[in-house]
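Minimal example, chain plus heme C.
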Amino acid sequence: METPPRPTPPAPAGRTNLWLGGVTLLFVALAAMFAKNLWGHVEPQKPLPLVDKKFLDTTPWRKTYADLVKAKEDLSDYDCYGCHEKGKPPPIRFDDKHKIIIPKEHSNIVMGHGSHDRNDHCWNCHNEQTLVTLQARAGQDVKFDNIPALCGSCHGPTYRDWEAGAHGRISGYWDRKRGAAERLSCANCHNPHAPRIGGREPAPGPHPLRDPHPAPATAQPAH
Ligand code: HEC
Ligand code: HEC
Ligand code: HEC
Ligand code: HEC
């Protein structure tokens, strides 16, 4: 006897829907877990702080007399004859250790030029005949807006380095056909009364793209 082949009964629609519903739920749950990153645990990158702006500032430290004139700032400190009498140079006083005494009207001035204060005498640089000008070493009259000529009369080698661009900062153009090279005045960097430049906080290295100090992934080879 032959048994007729039994047709497979069609799956009931209800069960298929249950299946699909289940699979959909599973995927939604997986998607949520991926979104929450339950497995990866990759640390999000910490924002790296940008370089402190003070290290990017290229304006010189000091304003010279010429800068004050240009910026139309207060020039009362340079109005020598607002207080002094013409033709009567103020007396220079020293204490018993031969240290110069700064009168209180000039208390903004701290003298300290050279080791052992060798160049602290006001008339080494200021002109006692006309207080409103300076005087170079051999007595030549120098205007307040020409400070390098004063400094250069005693610091010849440094002055020549500065002229050649090896001392101090040159900006502007290397290619002189395009524009002038600009030199800062000695007094943009050095306080004429106390010219030594103290130590400074070092600027940081280049800004890294990644955390420069991540936890080591593997042991470092010994050096
Ligand atoms: C606000 C007023 C005032 C101004 C402005 C002023 N001085 Fe004086 N200066 C004084 C007084 C006051 C003394 C003390 C005078 C004395 O002892 O007879 C003095 C003293 C001095 C001395 C002697 C310092 C010492 O250590 O003994 C010099 C040098 C001097 N002034 C130069 C200048 C020059 C240069 C200028 C302009 C660039 C100037 N002063 C502008 C008020 C002033
Ligand atoms: C009359 C001469 C004379 C003039 C002008 C002069 N200097 Fe000096 N300078 C000296 C002497 C002297 C020393 C000390 C050198 C030493 O102790 O070995 C010195 C030292 C220095 C130093 C080294 C730091 C220190 O204090 O020892 C600097 C920087 C300096 N001068 C800058 C200048 C600048 C900038 C000018 C112009 C505003 C200037 N000098 C004008 C004589 C002068
Ligand atoms: C090494 C040279 C030098 C010596 C020494 C010196 N000066 Fe000056 N002084 C200058 C220069 C250069 C300027 C102009 C500063 C500028 O343009 O930044 C100046 C500016 C001044 C000013 C006007 C600006 C201010 O800071 O008040 C006075 C006042 C002054 N000096 C007084 C004196 C007195 C007082 C002495 C002595 C105790 C003295 N100086 C010693 C070079 C010198
Ligand atoms: C752009 C800033 C800048 C300018 C402009 C500048 N200097 Fe200097 N100078 C320095 C620095 C920084 C040092 C080194 C710091 C120190 O040793 O005190 C120095 C050191 C010096 C020294 C002592 C060390 C040596 O033997 O060279 C003298 C002297 C000096 N400068 C003079 C001058 C004179 C003069 C001028 C102008 C003709 C001038 N500087 C212009 C920044 C400058």
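The chain has a mean pLDDT of 88. The radius of gyration is 39 Å.
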